[in-house]
Amino acid sequence: MFTPYEELDALLGDLTRSVRDILGDTFVGAYVQGSFALGAGDRHSDCDFVVAATRLPRGGTEAALRRLHDGIPLRPGHWTRHLEGSYADTASLRDLGGLGTPWLFNDHGHRELTWDTHCNSAHSRWILRHHGITLAGPPVTEVVDEVPPEAVRAEARAALPEVLDSVRSWASFDLAWTQRYTVTTYCRVLYSLRTGRVASKPGALAWGREHLTPGWGPLLTQVSADRGRGWDPADPPRPGSLEATYAFASYAESFAA
C-alpha cells in the first residue's frame, strides 16, 4: 500500500507502468511526494508525483506522455482528477544546481502538460528526499541529494512577500477554500523559515497554534476545522475570516526581514 486509498494505489500503479513503457530505457524511478509522502493526504488532497528519467522527455516521448495525461482525467473514479507531478531529468533533480530547470508538469485537475518549475523547488526536493514513497526504481536517496536547511529557509524567506499576490493570480478570494489555502500556505512558509524543514498542511497549522502569537489561534483553528468543507465554488468565506486572513498575511510577511 502506497496510500490509504485502494483506488489511488491502483491509479499510481497503472501510471507507473504506463510511464515506464513510454520512457523505455530512460526511465529511472517514480515517486510520491507532497501530502501523501508526509503522511497527511486525505480525500481533499491532490497526489503529487515525480518521475525521474535520464533525460527530459522530448519528441515522440513527450507526445506520448501528453496523450496519457490527456486521457487520465476522463477515466472514472475520484483520484483520476487529482494527480499532480512532473517528469524530471536526473541531472537537474540531483542537487540544487538544477533549480530553475523547467520539467514537464501535470497540473492538478488539468489534462494538458506544460513545461514548468512548479515541482522543482527546495520545498519539494526536501519532501522527496526525506519522505518520498518509491513506486518504482532505486531508493529516493540515490536520486536526490540532501537539501540543506539554509536552502529551505532562503526559499521560504523569498516566498513570504509573494504569497498573497501568487494566490490571487489563480484563485478567487470569494471562495472559502482560497481563504483556508492562504492561511495554511503562510503557516507552511513560516514553519520552513523557522525550522529549515517542510510540514504538511495540518502539521503547519498545528505548529502555528503552538508557536505563533496566540491571538491567531482562532483563525488557525477555523482553517483546520473547515478543511472537511473541501473545494466548493458556492461556498463563500466565513464572516470576518477574510479580513483576519489579510491581517495574518501582514503579520506573516513581517518575518521576511
What does this structure look like?
GO terms for molecular function: nucleotidyltransferase activity. Residues 142-223 form the Adenylyltransferase AadA C-terminal domain. It holds the Pfam family AadA_C. The protein is an alpha+beta fold and 257 residues long. It folds into 2 domains: 6-146, Beta Polymerase, domain 2 (2-Layer Sandwich); 150-256. Helix content is 47%, strand content 12%. The protein is built from 11 helices and 6 strands. The chain has helices at residues 6-23, 34-37, 59-71, 90-94, 122-131, 149-159, 163-168, 176-195, 201-211, 217-225, 241-253; strands spanning 27-33, 47-53, 83-89, 103-106, 114-116, 133-136. It has a 6-stranded mixed beta sheet with strand order 5-4-3-2-1-6. The mean pLDDT is 97.
Secondary-structure map with pairings?
Blueprint: H1 6-23, E1 27-33, H2 34-37, E2 47-53, H3 59-71, E3 83-89, H4 90-94, E4 103-106, E5 114-116, H5 122-131, E6 133-136, H6 149-159, H7 163-168, H8 176-195, H9 201-211, H10 217-225, H11 241-253
Parallel strand pairs: 2-3
Antiparallel strand pairs: 1-2, 1-6, 3-4, 4-5
Helix pairs in contact: 1-3, 6-8, 8-9, 8-10, 8-11, 9-10
